[in-house]
Amino acid sequence: MAADRLSPLSVLAACERLTTLLAKPDNAVRARLGERLQDRGLPQSQIAETFDLLIDQLSRAELERKITRELGGLTPARLARFDFKLPVFEAWVPLGMLAHIASGNAPAVGALSCIEGLLTGNLNVVKTSGADSLFTAEFLAALAEQDPTGKIAQRLIVLRFPSSRKEWLERMVAPADAVAVWGGEEAIAGVAALTGPGTRLIDWGPKLSFAYLTSDTWSAADALHGVAADICRIDQQACSSPQVIYLDTDDETQIFAFAERFAPVLADAVRQGQPRDPSDAEWAEINNTVLVARLEENLGLTKVITAEDGTWRVMADTRSVLRTSPLYRTVWVKPLPREKIAATLRPMRRYLQTVGLSASRQDTALLARTLVTSGVQRVTVPGRMLGGYAGEPHDGVYAMQRYSRRVDVQLDERFVTHAALDDFAPEAQLPAPNVPVTAKSDFETLAPGQAEVFFLSGGSSGEPKLSKYSWADYAETSDFAAECLLATGIDPRTDRVMNLFFSGHLYGSFISYFSALERLGVVQFPMGGEWNRFEAIAQSIVDNQVDTLVTVPSYVMRLFTEGGETLRRYRCVRKIFYAGEHFGDSQIQWLREEFGVEVVRSAAYGGIDVGPMGYQCLESPARVHHMFPGLHTLEILDPESDKPAASGDPGRLVFTAHTRRGQRLERYEIGDLGRWISEPCACGRQSPRFELLGRVGDVFRTAAQTLNYRRFVTIAEDALGYSGSLQVVLSEDAKGDMLTLRLESGDPETIVRELVAHYPELSEAVESSRLLRLYAEITPQSKFVHTASSGKIISVVENRSSRRIA
After folding, report:
1. What's the rounded Cα separation, in Å, for the pair 510 and 501?
2. CA distances to 69, 109, 179, 499, 574 from 55, in Å
């Protein structure tokens, strides 16, 4: 079931919490794991490097970039459309049971491989070597402790036994859907012999890396120091560590001269580090290699330079063939003219990984192409061979793609408005973080992140606030906004849409809907809303055969009023999708009867501060929306406290955004009121539904009464048949509070009489206690108070000296 899947967002959150602990040197978790690394014989310098590696690679930003790069987004298992014009759904799904055979020489590799398995939703069984100090087990246990859902713990099994126990290894890999093996060729071959024909073998076998220097740079200090640093970092234990230095020459004298020049540079780099001592077997290999090379000196083939204390070795060799070194700061220096690169490297292409290339800019571009054509996977510069970047391919492939399957589901017209098949299965919301609620007025106190795109809120509920997005945030919100538009009824195959939202002054509605419509692939006319060009815009609708509009309700009503004759003759605007304001039932009825409009529906429930928060399906009643449980967690809290509202009762909407990078939105009170809808939706979607009940500011206190703007709108529509815009203005003088109701038409005395007759709390304030004076004012909509940036009508205008909006 979809609800049983492990969301990558849960793994990201757990990794973020764990890295926060590991970043503190005095933290108990770090201390315990440090002891396990010490038990493995690692020196303090390598222990610190291991923690630095884990903290870097498991940071939220790094993992988000990695999963997005490799699998296309933060919810890769979601069966979603890649083309909104086609009812075809694709996803990256887990393989199932993923076995990891970790190597013994890299303490973090088993844990990191398991985390990639978790991010892809697999059940992970990892085997560490018999000599392992339980570091992998305790690290993964610490990760599971940071997951309040408990799903990570359910997907982790850690075993420790030597690979010589073949019967145990066979029992481990037999039920696996895939086996990831880290180690040498012998280890990979041994596991391959145990796997069945249907099991995917993912081999992370031995690789070989080297530096390549041209005559322009082989005497440059920065190039030499960079190569030496790559050799000394973790004593060449990484596949990306250079074992050979190739020079772009076939002159043997240059090879020997370079070895003499490089030896003191390497000696200096070794002195600055903390070199590890090889084991007895490793010492035997080193001594044997050096001994053979010294014997070949007599033939003029080699030249050996070694440290007196045995901490490093430089061995010049006149033969170009690529060969391994015995590691521990042992490096070959060999000739390889550029014209012989392909012929020399091609036989070893399956083993090639990283090249530290030092050349002129022109040569770098040309040699990089030659090297990758010859089989090299990575090209970088000296000093950065052991580095990398988030989302970088490993050994020429994306690891998480190897840990997943790409699947597709091809359907028919029944699914034309559905963006994802997962909506048909129940999906639990992710837990809200344990932090206080942030009020809308405190929006600017929210922690900033990787901010690259900035928008101002419209200001309809207070002073405009600057919202911060990363480009990745903006792309993601555009994708979800496109899903909203598809669900609510825009057909990208046939509709011709005019975008009449407002732009400029950092306001985001026009550009946001522009991007959402772009994602849909629908025909779009990005006109933009302008208050004084109604007739020209109406004519443009006719000239361009536009049949769908997206804008705010107040603009729609002005457009169809002032451009009414043109649009009434055209009678081909079939769909109107709106946002930002309430659209009255009588207004909608007027558009249908007078202009032939067939559909008037919410485009999306969203805001510049949070992005898309909900959407209406074709079966949704007015103000009822589905939410995106994978994108947000929604809490509906009691109006008077931060406890959950009773089932079905109105409450304050509080959102947590799980993927926002530009600004941290955790338990943010959006400023709206709503309630949960428990009844199933006729559309078949199982995603949670809620009903919007207006703005928090729509509820206000005056004359000892709590009144609601929405009640005024409903009474005006039902009792008066009113279909225009409506605005409440609160003011005061020496005699007390005044409430002025602005409308576009009607008789003021009749309006006041009907409101008092149908609104008991208002009647109490006006007639019983006489604490409130009620007026009705008939005025054009242009005289209403609008927000400066968006042009939206402000529902409740507070002109009293002390604000009393509830």
Report:
1. 5
2. 20, 14, 26, 45, 55
The alpha-carbon radius of gyration of the chain (Å, integer) is: 34
Residue entry with tokens 């003191």: 264
Which tokens go with 674?
């709503």
Q: Please, what sign has the CA dihedral across residues 537, 542, 543, 549? A: positive
Cα–Cα nearest to 557, from 708, 722, 720, 712: 722
The Cα 442–Cα 456 span in angstroms is: 15
Question: Is the pLDDT higher at 567 or at 466?
Answer: 567
CA angle 777, 781, 785 (to 5 degrees): 80
pTM here is: 0.84
Structure tokens at 778: 């008939």
d(C-alpha 300, C-alpha 317), whole Å: 9
- Kindly state the average pLDDT of the residues 534-546: 97
Helices 8-22 and 44-57 sit at what angle, rounded to 10 degrees?
A: 150
- Residue 647's pLDDT band, with cuts at 50, 70 and 90, is confident
Question: Minimal CA–CA distance to 301: which of 241, 252, 364?
Answer: 252
- Interval 184-213: pLDDT, tens: 888 899 999 999 888 999 999 889 999 999
Q: Which of 611, 798, 607, 778 is nearest to 699 (CA)?
A: 798
Which whole-number Å values give the CA distances from 267 to 1, 194, 234, 272, 368, in the listed order? 59, 45, 15, 9, 29
Compute the distance between CA of residue 306 and CA of residue 290 in angstroms, rounded to an integer: 9
Contacts of 707 by beta carbon, 8 Å cutoff, 6+ apart: 699, 700, 701, 739, 759, 761, 762, 765
CA neighbor of 497 nearest in space, from 514, 477, 484? 514
What is the rounded CA–CA span in Å between residue 363 and residue 368? Answer: 8
The 8 Å CB, 24+ separation contacts for 23-26 are 23/55
Give the other-Cβ count within 10 Å of 445's Cβ: 8
DSSP string, 321-362: -------SSEEEEEE--GGGHHHHHGGGGGGEEEEEEE--HH
State both tokens at 747. Answer: 């008789």
* DSSP string covering 587-646: HHHHHHHHH---EEEES-EEETTTEEEEB--TTPPTTEEE--TTTEEEEEE-TTSSSBPP
State how far the Cα of 752 lies from the Cα of 730, in Å rounded to an integer: 15
- Contact of 113 with 102, CB cutoff 8 Å: yes
Calculate the average pLDDT of the chain.
Answer: 92
> Which residues, listed in sequence order, are joined to residue 523 by a DSSP beta bridge?
496
Give the mean pLDDT of 211-216: 97
* Interatomic CA distance for residues 516 and 490, integer angstroms: 11
**Scanning the structure block, which residue is given the tokens 């070694």?**
306
Q: Which run of H or E residues covers position 157?
A: strand 156-160
* Cα–Cα distance measured from residue 786 to residue 794, given in angstroms and rounded to the nearest whole number: 6
Query: CA angle, corner 488, sides to 483 and 492, nearest 5?
Result: 65
Q: Which of 539, 459, 537 is nearest to 797 (CA)?
A: 459
696 three-state secondary structure: helix
- CA atoms of 763 and 36, how far apart (whole Å): 75
The contacts of residue 799 (CB under 8 Å, 6+ apart) are 729, 730, 731, 732
* Letter string b/e over residues 762-789, b meaning 16 or more CB atoms within 10 A of that residue's CB: bbbbbeeeeebbbebeeeebeebebbeb
Q: How many residues does the chain have?
A: 806
Residue 476 to residue 486: CA distance in whole angstroms: 16
DSSP bridge pairs for 495: none
| Residue-level pLDDT at 804 | 41
Q: How far apart are CA 634 and CA 246, in angstroms?
A: 59
d(C-alpha 321, C-alpha 374), whole Å: 14
- In the DSSP assignment, the letter for residue 403 is T
Decide if 705 contacts 711 (C-beta within 8 A).
no
Evaluate whether 716 touches 585 at the Cβ level (below 8 Å).
no
d(CA 104, CA 437): 47
